[in-house]
Write a structure and sequence with these properties.
Strand order of the largest sheet: 2-3-4-1-5
Radius of gyration: 24 Å
Number of strands: 14
Helix content: 25-40%
Structural class: alpha/beta
Mean pLDDT: 91
Shape: globular
Low-confidence stretches: none
Strand content: 15-25%
Distance between the termini: 70 Å
Number of helices: 15
């Protein structure tokens, strides 16, 4: 199994004394099932797995009653495996196919005998079928395709090299030219291969890009089948139309999704559920424009103006019909490749834990990403060409006296450099751009002695 950061998340969850069920959500083919199965077999004495898509008879376990004792009795009879309290992990895979199982999680967690992990690819799209959510009994964890650091692990890059790169990022010290050149080549291959584990494994074993593309197109076909199978009938054509148009929409100069290019008479309110379906399925990543690049960004979002990125850039490359892979592998990220590079950055930024926003105004121009990092704002520009020190919109925004920004980054092909309070970073350094960590405890006590009557 390929090394994944999510494995550490599962270990941390297991160590909690009073744990909820862990619900792992993410798009299809990102490695959820393989990871959880490996984790369960290595860390528990007993492991039970039910897949509600492959085994429809398993639904009957939850058809009689949602009482924990009844469910566990039915479950033990069905799986015919030993289940010992405090030593057993029960894994409900594709739980979106059995809404009663999702509702029953509350009662199973209260029972306390076993640990539970749920996983699903379309959980966010099938919320109407669930009678009652297990609020307070379920910990949600969003999983994404393999990020660039995980991709380096898969390609046997030594941990000492990654630590050296991390130190360079932390201290803003330029990377040696030989390492910088090699990392750029690895980054080009990551753009083409993407982060779907099966695709990464194919590349690592064969280094055959034709096999990589064939695997990616199979995944794209699977996503289209999901739309046909699981989306509401009235929305299927709209969702498929949006999904298929993402590459062409990103190829436009401003990357913004223009609904009228998909449907001449289209209205945002008629398509809103279709956009949400793709986002909730983990297939697409919306990036909303903001009125002002100041916190809190969520209050400044304009939901009728957005870019729509694909959740995996390797799939985006495979969806493009002009064989962009060869040019990218040769290091050609000229202006027409800017959309692919921006998509990759959005994918990594989202996986790192940030929300996606951009800023575009007639007065200042466009900033690729405006990121809320804690209570402060970071500005990120993504440059694909050699002219990466030309960024008029960034210069204009930084001159606004009432706007204070934490950092201004330009991600480019160049090495680490700081000029006029703008930090230039190699593209691959995006893997170290993480949210500001919250304190483990935030205790706030008020002295009420002044409110006591005088004795």
């Amino acid at each position: 199994m390929l090394k994944r950061k999510a494995y550490d998340k599962l270990l941390a969850w297991k160590q909690k004394k009073q744990k909820q069920a862990l619900c792992v959500i993410g798009a299809r083919q990102i490695g959820k099932t393989t990871l959880i199965r490996e984790f369960g077999k290595k860390n528990y004495k007993y492991f039970v797995e039910l897949n509600f898509v492959l085994d429809e008879k398993a639904h009957s376990i939850f058809s009689e009653s949602l009482d924990a004792k009844t469910i566990i009795t039915n479950l033990t009879a069905y799986v015919q495996k030993k289940m010992s309290p405090n030593e057993t992990l029960i894994f409900f895979d594709e739980i979106q196919a059995c809404p009663n199982a999702r509702t029953a999680i509350k009662f199973l967690v209260e029972d306390g005998r076993f640990d539970y992990i749920e996983s699903g690819s379309l959980l966010g799209t099938r919320y109407k079928e669930i009678r009652s959510y297990p609020v307070g009994f379920e910990e949600i964890y969003y999983m994404y395709p393999m990020d660039f650091e995980e991709y380096l692990w898969a390609n046997n890059v030594q941990e000492s090299t990654i630590n050296y790169l991390r130190s360079s990022f932390d201290t803003l010290t330029p990377v040696t030219e030989s390492i910088h050149s090699t990392l750029l080549k690895l980054f080009y291959s990551y753009i083409v291969v993407g982060g779907m584990p099966a695709v990464v494994q194919t590349f690592v074993k064969t280094h055959d890009i034709t096999n990589v593309i064939n695997n990616q197109r199979s995944i794209i076909d699977l996503y289209r089948l999901d739309i046909a199978q699981y989306a509401e009938k009235n929305d299927q054509l709209k969702i498929k139309g949006i999904f298929d148009s993402i590459p062409a929409q990103l190829d436009e100069k401003n990357r913004r999704f223009i609904l009228t290019k998909l449907d001449e008479h289209g209205r945002q309110n008629r398509y809103q559920n279709s956009f949400l379906w793709l986002s909730d399925a983990g297939v697409a990543l919306p990036c909303y424009n903001i009125t002002t690049p100041q916190p809190p960004l969520q209050l400044n979002q304009k939901h009728n103006l957005f870019k729509l990125f694909m959740a995996d850039t390797g799939l985006l490359c495979a969806a493009c019909m002009d064989n962009v892979q060869f040019s990218i592998l040769q290091g050609d990220l000229s202006i027409n490749m800017g959309s692919i590079l921006e998509n990759l950055m959005a994918q990594i930024i989202k996986a790192n834990g940030f929300n996606l926003n951009y800023f575009d105004s007639k007065k200042y121009g466009e900033l690729d990403f405006v990121i809320q990092n804690g209570t402060q704002i970071d500005l990120l520009e993504i440059k694909s060409g050699n002219d990466y020190k030309q960024h008029s919109a960034l210069n204009k925004v930084l001159k606004v006296s009432e706007w204070n920004f934490k950092n201004a980054f330009v991600f480019c092909k160049g090495n680490i450099e700081i000029i006029d309070n703008i930090t230039y970073l190699p593209w691959y350094m995006i893997m170290f751009y993480k949210p500001k960590e919250l304190p483990q405890q935030l205790i706030y006590e008020i002295d009420l002695s002044a409110l006591q009557p005088n004795s």
